[in-house]
Specification:
The chain is built from 21 helices and 29 strands. It is of the alpha+beta class and about 800 residues long. The strands form seven sheets. The chain has a seven-stranded mixed beta sheet with strand order 3-6-1-13-10-11-12, with helices on both faces. Strands 4-8-16-15-14-9 form a six-stranded mixed beta sheet, sandwiched between helices. The chain starts with about 25 loop residues before the first helix and ends in a 7-residue tail after the last helix.
């Protein structure tokens, strides 16, 4: 990927499209970051949670007497002590858009989660009690003294078993273990399948794994002793939602709670939802009158923070003799874990992304979310898309094999063309509107990926045969991603008396580089140097309204809000300068932070002089009534629809039949995210997504035993790839601007993670064609690959 880094930032103007070094990195690399755990609050106490060792049990008694007498313990609370607080519901995530409700009438069942379990525990790791002590060590010691008596109950870990007749109930107020259910139909799939030349039917599984950010979850809270106002510091991706939830839980007005998203060491969706710990810590701070801190250890993160990905797809493709797809059917089962935390978000993302870039006229898709005695599942980078792309792209390769058509050729015959944009799929998108792809060139994405992968060269080497039992394979996978989820995002631009520009946005950063990319957008919109812009994200006092950084939405929404706010402030600056200089506004321009008439020696004024020379109180400057005299503006950007990003991945692998090891020889990605604000940041985001996707494809899996016990609770068992396992990436990009927003941008933070599981499964299956292997699930660890090979004739 080329970078336009040869232009100096001192050139001024045209910041969008430059690979400007991230302004936040100098501070972070010098160890000057301020994560939640770095915020030392004098007089604070620390919290530790006692978590259930059982997957399903009735709590018969809890004795905390000994724990209360332990050294340094300030308080010990059980479910009875917080029973007056409302249970947790991720209300915004559980809300069904009106259009979706009207057209598809989905089932979405609420399962409120008690802040501390009282009657029953439903998964290993569920909080049962909390100890507050002078430090974490003393709190952990006291946890061992809490005596809980459990009566074990039947355990369900398999979602299909949980739906079977007579299965024990997780939630006694529900008739069964179904959490969500939705289905849709386009055209006449029955007729399409009846008339098809070829039908392939498969069962594919997306296995469970974990976001595992380098910084685990953390939250700290303090009550102002003067005003009584509550401040919460959190690694959350959605600070405004957390503010509202804390206020609701504690019976406070939203304005009396301030949430600050501190520096965050990765979120990936795991920190995008609400958790009981984030509500109990502020409650403890108010109740004790002391600051309270809690941070998660790695075992808690792996077993008690949200999981993701586990789905079963029973998919069928119908095609004519030339490989043109006539219809698709898919019945998707999603393991929700013990609670319905985010409703239709992941299931419906899987449903409405199944068709991908392909033209498929007849469709029947149903999705069911099921409750089991495992940790609850929520969105993780890609949020339902990697799972559905795995199923569709695997099915495409199975269809290609049946028809004797090259996998890349089968895809090319079915792609929506650029001349068909905007393209209506016939489905309903996540917002409840008719689904439409706004722009893109899917055939060109595939052409470039095929060329870079050197398919002809790979096939020639395959014909030469395996060398020392090492088999070569090539695979492809394509995807689309609806980005820029609404309903809105906020940006506020202020010109300070010093002349510096303050930009506040509602979307916090978890490493995406917002302080750089948003500043680039603001610099272009206003007409100021990049170096005078200060960016704040995720402080509910700086922007009282906001949604957060989830669903590949920050650049589309906060970026366009920034652009519009910057343009409006530019108008105000020029109008104010016109009054100060006595020059008509239409004769003035703003560049590099200086307003001037343009002619040599003409009048000019800098931002510091303009903003710092505002009138004193009591002597207001005349205005036209349209604006106040402050050089500031707030914009809430509402996207009219989704900006659809897309991509094609290709991978060349070598599989050792003796050891089962998979080596990635060449990894290609060609992506389209519209206009790119900062190519270097974009490349980093795509690279990070691919790394996590490779982790899921080859290494990572959260494994449960039939008793509901997690068997991969530490990094000794749960394998996370390092930089040594991630190959150099061969990247290319297209730029088809989105017509859905002023900047023409599309989200790309999740795109890299969507295709790796599918493309690597396809490549491994291609490599193992001599053994008749069909890859139906991952991760493709050495032992699983050996298990695939072993049944082949003549193999041990």
């Amino acid at each position: 990927m080329s970078h336009d880094s040869d232009r100096s930032p001192q050139d001024g103007g045209g910041w969008t499209g430059r690979s400007v070094p991230r302004v936040e990195d100098d501070r972070l690399l010098r160890g000057r970051g301020r994560y939640v755990d770095d915020i030392a609050l004098p007089g604070g106490v620390e919290a530790a949670f006692l978590r259930s060792p059982h997957a399903h049990a009735r709590i018969e008694s809890v004795d905390v007497k000994a724990a209360l007498e332990a050294p340094g313990v300030v308080a010990v609370w059980t479910g009875e002590d917080v029973a007056d607080l409302p249970p947790l519901l991720n209300k915004e995530e559980l809300r069904t858009p009106a259009g979706l409700a009207e057209l598809l009438d989905p089932t979405v069942r609420m399962t409120p989660m008690p802040l501390l379990a009282g009657g029953t525990v439903l998964y290993v790791g569920q909080p049962v009690a909390v100890v507050l002590a002078e430090n974490r060590y003393l709190a952990e010691d006291a946890l061992e003294l809490v005596d809980v008596r459990y009566a074990p109950l039947p355990v369900l870990v398999d979602p299909e078993d949980a739906l079977s007749e007579g299965a024990p109930l997780l939630h006694e107020d529900l008739p069964d273990n179904l959490a969500v259910d939705v289905a849709t139909r386009v055209g006449d799939p029955d007729a399409a399948f009846a008339s098809a030349h070829t039908v392939v039917s498969e069962r594919f599984e997306a296995h469970r794994y974990v976001a595992s950010p380098i910084e685990t979850r953390a939250v700290s809270a303090q009550v102002d002793p003067y005003s009584g106002r509550l401040t919460v510091w959190s690694g959350t991706q959605t600070p405004h939602r957390l503010r509202d939830a804390v206020a609701h839980t504690l019976g406070l007005a939203a304005g009396s709670v301030r949430v600050i998203a501190a520096d965050v060491g990765g979120g990936f969706g795991q920190k995008g939802i609400l958790y009981v710990e984030e509500l109990l810590v502020p409650h403890a701070a108010r109740r004790l009158g002391r600051p309270v801190l809690w941070r998660e250890d790695r075992n808690e993160n792996l077993t008690a923070s949200s999981h993701a990905r586990e789905q079963i797809h029973r998919i069928e493709l119908a095609a004519d003799a030339e490989g043109r797809i006539l219809g698709v059917r898919d019945r998707i089962t999603v393991n929700f874990g013990a609670y319905n935390m985010t409703g239709l978000v992941v299931p419906y993302n899987s449903l409405c992304h199944l068709l991908g870039p392909y033209r498929i006229p007849h469709v029947e898709i149903g999705v069911t979310g099921v409750l089991t005695n495992t940790t609850f599942a929520t969105p993780y980078r890609g949020a339902g898309r990697p799972e559905t792309v795995f199923a569709m792209e695997r099915a495409m390769d199975r269809l290609a094999a049946d028809l004797g058509i090259a996998p890349e050729e089968l895809r090319a015959r079915n792609l929506v063309g650029p001349d068909e944009m905007p393209y209506a799929t016939g489905l309903v998108d996540r917002s409840g509107s008719p689904q439409s792809y706004d722009s893109g060139d899917f055939p060109e994405l595939l052409r470039r990926a095929v060329a870079k992968a050197d398919v002809e060269g790979v096939r020639a080497r395959q014909r030469e045969g395996a060398r020392d039992g090492r088999h070569l394979g090539v695979g492809f996978a394509m995807y689309i991603e609806a980005t820029g989820l609404g309903p809105f995002e906020t940006a506020r631009v202020d010109i300070a008396p010093s002349g510096r520009v303050r930009l506040a946005i509602g979307a916090p950063s978890q490493g995406q580089g917002h302080r750089t990319s948003m500043a680039q957008i603001a610099a272009d919109a206003i007409g100021v140097p990049l170096g005078i812009i200060d960016v704040t994200g995720g402080d509910t006092d700086a922007t009282p309204f906001g949604l957060g950084t989830i669903a590949s939405r920050a650049l589309v929404n906060a970026g366009n809000a920034t652009h519009r706010a910057g343009k409006l402030v530019r108008e105000k600056i020029i109008e104010a300068a016109a009054r100060r200089l006595g020059v008509p506004a239409d004769r003035l321009g703003l560049s590099d932070g200086v307003v001037s008439a343009g002619e040599p020696g003409g009048p000019s004024i800098g931002l510091a002089e303009l903003a710092g020379g505002a009138p004193m109180p009591g002597t207001p400057e005349p205005t036209d009534g349209r604006h106040g005299t402050e050089l500031s503006e707030t914009v809430h950007f509402r996207p009219p629809g989704f900006a659809v990003a897309s991509g094609a991945h290709a991978a060349v692998v070598e599989v050792d039949e003796h050891t089962g090891a998979v080596e990635i020889l060449h990894y290609v990605v060609v992506h389209d995210a519209g206009v790119i604000v900062n190519p270097m940041i974009a490349e980093g985001q795509v690279t990070g997504g691919i790394a996590q996707g490779i982790g899921g494809a080859l290494y990572e899996e959260m494994v449960y035993g039939p008793d509901g016990q997690p068997r991969t609770g530490t990094y000794m068992d749960y394998l996370v790839p390092t930089s040594s396992e991630i190959p150099d990436l061969d990247m290319d990009e297209l730029h088809t601007p989105s017509p859905m927003n002023d900047l023409g941008v599309k989200g790309l933070g999740e795109g890299g993670a969507i295709a790796p599981q599918a493309v690597l499964a396809n490549a491994v299956e291609d490599a193992l064609r001599p053994f008749g292997v069909v890859v139906r699930r991952g991760p493709l660890s050495p032992s699983r690959v050996r298990d695939l090979i072993r049944p082949a004739p003549g193999r041990d």
